[in-house]
Amino acid sequence: MISMTSSANSNSADSKTLQRLVSGNFEFHANLPISSVSKFSDEKWTWVDRSNERLECYTPDRLTINWEKILMDYKLPENIVSDLKRYAFV
Q: Going by fewer Cβ within 10 Å, which terminus of the chain is more open, N or C?
């Protein structure tokens, strides 16, 4: 059972994270979790999860962002892709 204090602390932590994001003081660490299988530094972010019935109607390509492909296909500078990754995370 989750106590009210635990829930309140979680909401407070979420609020502080949101405040840091909005103020531009949030650090996007390489190991920041994106999904159960992807982290911020990965070249591909995927939300494919065969055990999640809600996602069965999506093909894997609809649940994946391939940052390396975006970088190459659009010939974008790496700093632009880094900005896009931060924007996608938020």
A: N
